[in-house]
Amino acid sequence: MTVKQLMVGLSTMAIALLLLSGCGGDWCDDEWCEDDYPSPQKTMFLYLNVADEDGNPLPNVTVWIAGSQQDEKTGDEYSRLGTQFPPEWQGWEYNWSGGPYWIDVRDCAGDRCEIEILVTRSGYVSQRTYIPLDAWDPDEVYVRHTFVMEPRIDASPLEVVETPTQPEKTALVTADR
Q1: 17 φ/ψ sector (left φ>0, alpha ψ -120 to 50, else beta)
Q2: Domains and CATH numbers, the chain
Q3: Which helix (H) or strand (E) holds 130?
């Protein structure tokens, strides 16, 4: 066997090994690799403070998440977020909570979802906001937002206004951080 034949044989074996092994790594399902990319599947928990103009909890407000009416309405008392949340969130008051909501960002345009949150109550101007979620958000996302609802002055058709602030997102505080 000549050196040239030996080199061709070794090159052929190397190419065959590369093809069989996938170039040294496994290809992930749906083109997502846990080690290289974040998970596209998110779990969202939502905490809302729905108040009247004086800051009091506004009860019996209907909450809509991504176009789906939720069974539970807002309460007439506030609860407080606990110590599992970041320090700046601890003690924050809410009168509606929901979740888990499962969102796969691959189902949204450009792998970025805009989840609509709408609050409605008869006699009040409805409000909405949007929660942006993308693949780089934590796998479990906690969201808080305040709605201050104003009475509707006239009997005009249902009016929906955007809230002046954006919802806040976080991940829970864990002992190993």
Answers
A1: alpha
A2: 41-170 (2.60.40.1120)
A3: strand 126-134
